[in-house]
Amino acid sequence: MVSWMISRAVVLVFGMLYPAYYSYKAVKTKNVKEYVRWMMYWIVFALYTVIETVADQTVAWFPLYYELKIAFVVWLLSPYTKGASLIYRKFLHPLLSSKEREIDDYIVQAKERGYETMVNFGRQGLNLAATAAVTAAVKSQGAITERLRSFSMHDLTAIQGDEPVGQRPYQPLPEAKKK
């Protein structure tokens, strides 16, 4: 438990906050070398995050697992080992370059399907809302009918101003006061 908390703190501070600040500095100073360094780091760190999510669920029981995570994040960041640059240049860049066309096509398909899916969900949501509104109206109409049936005929005739227009007693309009 203590190992987990320490590794989480190290990954958050040294794996995210420190690189985020130096990425900001690289963008601010427009230093292309630093900008490229931190872009490579973030690409590798994104892959690390995906792998970490799966590994935390499957191999967290492994002895020294959290200590290895700490060591890996420090290795990625170290300017001496240049771990992120090494992983990016030796593995990720060649892999992404060879699969770039396929990945782009997949993203386009996912966007199209995502739009269609959202339209379908929207349509289903509107149908569900319309059905719920009609059901509520029908149920409330039944409740009003039941409420009216509970009145006696005498109660209904005693309501003022509810008579049809032709059956109302004639009441002359009050005359305007003369000056």
UniProtKB/TrEMBL annotation:
The chain crosses the membrane at residues 6-24, 36-55, 61-80. GO terms for cellular component: endoplasmic reticulum membrane; microtubule. Keywords: Cell cycle, Cell division, Endoplasmic reticulum, Membrane, Microtubule, Mitosis, Receptor, Transmembrane, Transmembrane helix. It is a multi-pass membrane protein. It is found in: Endoplasmic reticulum membrane; Membrane. It comes from the Eukaryota. GO terms for biological process: cell division. InterPro entries: TB2_DP1_HVA22. Microtubule-binding protein required to ensure proper cell division and nuclear envelope reassembly by sequestering the endoplasmic reticulum away from chromosomes during mitosis. Probably acts by clearing the endoplasmic reticulum membrane from metaphase chromosomes. Belongs to the DP1 family. This is Receptor expression-enhancing protein. It comes from Macaca mulatta.
